[in-house]
Specification:
Shape: globular
Radius of gyration: 13 Å
Structural class: mainly beta
Order of helices and strands: EEEEEEEEEEE
Strand content: over 45%
Helix content: under 10%
Number of helices: 0
């Protein structure tokens, strides 16, 4: 059974950086990998997504500050978050779309940015 394990969240001050990681166990072929976030009282929203072939898209609010990347050999997706702002505070979820298994979600990791 494939599972997603997230790491890298935490508490930082505005302007600092964090790097999130999400590793998929097993060796199932992967299509897209992405990060979403959900702040209290708000809907879950797309932060960044990377397709097989490295096509990427970002939410307008994080363009120029966040970078998504993937390591296919490790079945891992990363989110480098720079110049963090208090409004980036949320639970961040990775989402991986497998060719056979479909879409799976990570357990979520809390990112808190203090002003």
């Amino acid at each position: 059974q494939v599972q997603l394990v997230e790491s890298g969240g935490g508490l930082v001050q505005a302007g600092e950086s964090l790097r999130l990681s999400c590793e998929a166990s097993g060796s199932t072929a992967i299509d897209a990998m992405g990060w979403y976030r959900q702040a209290p009282g708000k809907q879950r929203e797309l932060v960044a997504r990377i397709r097989n072939g490295d096509g990427t898209n970002y939410a307008d609010s994080v363009k120029g500050r966040f970078t998504i990347s993937r390591d296919n050999a490790r079945n891992t997706v990363y989110l480098q978050m720079n110049s963090l702002k208090p409004e980036d505070t949320a639970v961040y979820y990775c989402n991986i779309v497998f060719y056979i298994l479909g879409s799976l979600w990570g357990q979520g990791t809390q990112v808190t940015v203090s002003s």
